[in-house]
């Protein structure tokens, strides 16, 4: 059989413009058991619109077909492509080379602060991982929470075509690990050949996706080797040789030959170019002066921003929480649903996981006894910790410290999703229910945020962080103080500041004790708001934010009575919930035992009434919805 034939490539535009075509008579050659040839399609720059990450513009995609005809035989393939440039910028941050290198993504010339989390397989059985409804709900939840990047973790799967197609459409950039994680791997030639084939196949399959920003060789194996996690120190040089054979000689070579256009990192975390310079296993792969870091701290109070590293890019960080009772119930009988049950212990895969969660909860929240309260508190604690940490990373984007640290340009928390009903670091549980963290992520990843903090020397400061490419002048920052235990809803102080919104800028700073004078002997917390002009008449530029100036453990916590006053259906999918409270209520948490999303959740109620909209994934039966709807708020004893 002759393989001589005609290769045609066509790029399609909207109806007005004719397609651009290229046509070539070819005689493809056999390479590694497949026929290979090349055709070049020249596309004038002005003919196409660019593809942008979520938050920066549209995700314009074009149909590209490639067909090959040889005698009576023909085959055709259609893919969707986008036009964009992605660079990973690693430039000296100062004249002194010891101050390290930057580490950030630039898309179409625009530096992008990467916001998002880590993706693990969406089901424990790989054959169920490409369920379109589940994957679509997860990825659109990511977009709704203002994500622009997901890291597909090296301990999981090369995901389905559908997954990357959705990322292309939603503007979610993908940091794609190769599937090597937390282990030392063999280096004999049979294994390396098989790896090489696998990498070429996967990169060939995926490289046309506009969303894929970067390839990385493995998850944490550089750190594991350097820090002797698996007892390799007795012959470091042997394991290092093996490491280089696999990730550099085999994987990097295979990636670069299949896709020379994208940046490649040997490991995550790594020091990027500095790791290469140091021979691929750097002295400290977690250096805050280079590359990315994975940061976990299960001892310190996560609600304090002072504990977090001043890194270039945080590609993993987080703590555990429990999924909702409804989600746990799907895999349990009622007798399993108590603290300490065999069922719950079996599903905890972090050694000492519940003890860690409990100790961290007690740093800020009251004692608890029931599983319901444990779930609620674990989700408050996780939301507050990841909020505090992420805002810290976003504040550091414009800050270069004398040490060379700072200029953080990425915050990907661990982890988006779950493979089963269990305690984990996820922000969305196995059933697709948003944990409190995911509602918080929507706010802390908003394009513009106000971020109030109290410093170690009792200064109260507010930073405004903006991803916008323009500055906004004459914006109005509102700072309100509330007493925790006030019985009316009036703030004890309400101040307004005229500020400019630009990248990350500290816009006000004052002595904390002075600020709190109006509170007398009562304890207060602070709410910050941002408006484009007069707060009474203009739109909010940022979600409302808050900071507890007194740890909750020493505050006079209110015991509010929060009630669901009424529920009205709106269109087929929505329910409008009216809540009522007799005093200020913290961490007001709504649960509905059906799949869907609340417009707000985990919020503080500072008014006697508030409306929240529930949007169901399926047409809503309001009576059924009401019978499952539940509201909880923080009380000093629960
Ligand atoms: C390390 O392994 C290599 C290869 O097996 C061997 O030649 C060398 O002696 C080993 N070094 C040590 C210190 O055990
Ligand atoms: C925004 O303001 C900063 C600080 O004043 C300034 O350096 C920058 O050039 C401004 N950017 C734009 C786009 O106007
Ligand atoms: C805010 O400050 C800017 C610049 O200092 C000034 O031009 C503007 O009039 C002020 N706006 C208000 C509402 O005070
Ligand atoms: C709030 O708590 C403080 C300190 O415990 C107490 O003095 C005050 O009376 C309380 N106020 C109200 C309205 O309960
Ligand atoms: C969980 O998933 C099941 C099956 O898809 C569904 O019937 C149930 O309503 C879901 N529950 C919640 C709370 O989303």
Automatic annotation (TrEMBL):
Domain Glycoside hydrolase family 2 catalytic: 105-328
Entry superkingdom: Eukaryota
UniProt domain Beta-mannosidase Ig-fold: residue ranges: 558-636
InterPro entries from the UniProt entry: Beta-gal/glucu_dom_sf, Beta-mannosidase_GH2, Beta-mannosidase_Ig, GH, Glyco_hydro_2_cat, Ig-like_fold, Mannosidase_ig
Mannosidase Ig/CBM-like domain span: 460-534
SUPFAM superfamilies: (Trans)glycosidases, beta-Galactosidase/glucuronidase domain
GO MF terms, alphabetically ordered: hydrolase activity, acting on glycosyl bonds
Keywords: Disulfide bond, Glycosidase, Hydrolase, Signal
Family: Belongs to the glycosyl hydrolase 2 family.
Protein name, entry field: Beta-mannosidase
